[in-house]
Amino acid sequence: MEEEKKEKVSFDEYQKHAYNLISEDGKKDLVLNGVLGLAGEAGECCDIVKKVKFQGHTMDKEHLMEEIGDVLWYVAETASGLGVSLSDVAQYNLDKLHNRYHGEKFNKEDSIHRTK
Residue 63: helix, strand or coil by DSSP? Predict the structure, then answer.
């Protein structure tokens, strides 16, 4: 039996769904809870890659994807705390990077001599 294909969710829809899953205590300070959770989940991502690189583990893509999802969840929470959408954050970041690299791709000189 074929697996049913799910429609992909937009960043902004994801953010709305994620917000509904935040605990009442977490909603009291979305930014603080978001950045603390982000630090913890990013650390878990690092730990998975460290074990592959230095301890002989095999890459468990599903586990890393799960942890990246947790990172995304806390990014969404932090953005909600700031009153901005994830699509706003994504566009802001792309604009910053295009300005930094003066075009469409990475440039070593622009990276070394960046102003922001």
Answer: helix
